[in-house]
Write a structure and sequence with these properties.
Radius of gyration: 19 Å
Low-confidence stretches: none
Number of strands: 7
Strand order of the largest sheet: 1-2-3-4-5-7-6
């Protein structure tokens, strides 16, 4: 298996991976209570969300099989050697900041087909959201989620950083270190640029991130969304920083929570 940059031809496969993975996510289930009845509309909503992020400077890498890679356990009955070129996961990153390094990453993609397609998907998504045309979604719940989970991280602490925007691995390829490999690209890049990485994750995602050196600095309660489990903000930083960013972020989050409770 190897990583490579996203190609426009990857959209159908990535759409399938997003739809299957997100179907088990409690937040997505809350926003899309009719996903099973309107699966195609739900699948398209995930595609639009990813392409919107790409249109605004997202950096996407995909994990792709090499010829001869072993079949996953769920497909062991397949005949012959595993063909290469099969996308099994992807990671979407966003570079935050105003430094020249950040601006270089934020420059629009030079692939005009991708830029135009991402723009059109973004425009279509805005139209669908404005007029509530996605039958799989509940617009009131969607706005509640944005209000609860849409708060940005501290702009001063994370003035220069990488954000892990999305990470999905096809179910049959999970627990095979695909997610870890996709994460490693961003962590290596952040270390080279001397900046931290932050991510918002569910309890399931927290297990992967903490195994790769992330630390949870804020718990986001989702009581207003009728969700039993909270979401978390986590940060990764270079080991030689000795947890400095984590301590600052945790202290700021605790202060903000105390202010809201007062």
């Amino acid at each position: 298996m190897h990583l490579r940059p996203f190609h426009q031809s990857d959209i159908p496969r990535i759409s399938d991976i997003i739809a299957i993975c997100d179907a088990d996510d409690p937040v997505v289930q809350y926003c899309h209570p009719h996903m099973l009845k309107y699966w195609d509309a739900y699948r398209r909503s995930g595609t639009r969300a990813i392409l919107r992020k790409m249109a605004t400077g997202g950096v996407c890498w995909v994990a792709e099989t090499d010829e001869g890679d072993p079949w996953p356990a769920a497909m062991r009955d397949s005949q012959g050697p595993r063909p290469g070129g099969f996308v099994v996961g992807f990671a979407l990153w966003k570079r935050v900041g105003n430094s020249q390094v950040a601006k270089n990453w934020q420059r629009p993609c030079r692939d005009w087909d991708r830029r135009i397609d991402s723009f059109l998907h973004s425009l279509q998504g805005s139209y669908i959201d404005l007029f509530h045309l996605d039958p799989s979604a509940d617009p009131v719940r969607h706005q509640s989620v944005l209000k609860t989970l849409g708060r940005p991280v501290d702009a001063e602490i994370f003035a220069e950083a990488w954000e892990m925007s999305a990470l999905c691995v096809a179910p049959e390829y999970q627990r095979r270190r695909v997610g870890t490999t996709l994460l490693k690209w961003g962590l290596d890049q952040a270390a080279a640029e001397n900046v931290p990485v932050f991510v918002q994750a569910s309890p399931v995602g927290v297990k992967l991130y903490t195994s790769c050196g992330f630390q949870a600095f804020e718990k986001i309660l989702c009581d207003d969304l009728d969700l039993e489990e909270p979401m978390y903000y986590l940060v990764w930083e270079r080991p030689d920083w000795n947890g400095r960013v984590f301590e600052l972020a945790k202290k700021k989050a605790e202060g903000t929570a105390a202010g809201r409770a007062a």
